[in-house]
Amino acid sequence: xQVLLVEDEAIVAxxxxxxxxxxxxxxxxxxxxxDAWYLAGTGQYAAIILDLxxxxxxxxxxxxRLRSEGVTTPILILxxxxxxxxxxxxxxxxxxxxxxxxxxxxxxxxxxxxxxRRSSGMTAAKLSSDGLEIxxxxxxxxxxxxxxxxxxxxxxxxxxxxxxxxxxxxxAVLAETLYSHHHERDTNAIEVLVGRLRRKVGKDYIATRRxxxxxxxxxxxx
Length: 222
Known about the structure:
Number of strands: 11
Number of domains: 2
Distance between the termini: 29 Å
CATH architecture of the largest domain: 3-Layer(aba) Sandwich
Strand content: 15-25%
Helix content: 40-55%
Largest sheet: 5 strands, parallel
Strand order of the largest sheet: 2-1-3-4-5
Number of helices: 9
Mean pLDDT: 84
Low-confidence stretches: 180-184
Shape: elongated
Order of helices and strands: EHEHEHEHEHHEEEEHHHEE
Oligomer: single chain
Structural class: alpha/beta
Radius of gyration: 18 Å
CATH class of the largest domain: Alpha Beta
């Protein structure tokens, strides 16, 4: 499953990204409110972890815009402003949970996974195209009903591409998404991973736009 982390403090963002990935989640990172609004409105996420103190557009405004646009993804607010009244304001504005800073990473992980479990019927819709189906609830992939055995990295790569079907995703962006800051984000590793994934799901599902990146197009598209 994929979550959107919205955090502008680099050290905090790196730590939370690593922790979320180790807990089995794929992570997209937005560093300001404008990017958060765009990603949350165009991507498919199981949950959004949203800091309120953001540059460009503040987190509360981002949340209100998303809710007004019909985005129902569960939102966990992170904020240094932890008074009772501010928590109530956050919940009333559309948040599903509120975690004041400072917090323990273990608590954040527990709350995020709890949000995903409680809302799985709403946010864990299956993704399918031309016989290929991804079930985020069980992290499984089938092609015409036949299970496909993927490694965690292969699954995360496929999920990211299918979630952005038709959009070209640069190798550098995939490396940033899939690998933690402890690993070298080598685009050659992405090329190898794409090659392995193609051998398992079929080469026609994933296309290369040379010089730009990769995109999921479905086996029947040209």
